[in-house]
Amino acid sequence: MKAKLMLFLVIIIFPALVFAGEISCTISKSGRPYAKQVVTILNKKGETIKTATTDDFGTFTITITQVGAFQLKTGEGAIADIYSSNTRISYTFTLDQKDSKWKLNQK
After folding, report:
1. Domains of the chain, first to last
2. pLDDT, tens digit, for every residue of 35-66?
């Protein structure tokens, strides 16, 4: 009985840990698209996982093979928490400056 339960749990949980998650994100700055800018995806340790460049509309799509919590960092140093799952996740951020520091605010 325990073996069947373990097999069932592995079949249910394992795919969620293996399949890549697609993250789609749109960023605007001062009411305009954050166009042609490099953004970085960081893991929990602050290490770079992937980089992407936004298009003319401030949008990028990236696939992360791991599922879980990550951070999105802009060239200005603004950071926001993002998550990857085994389904597509979309984010919309505004890049705002306050007291000479940049911040990503999720809409």
Report:
1. 20-106 (2.60.40.10)
2. 999 999 999 999 999 999 999 999 999 999 88
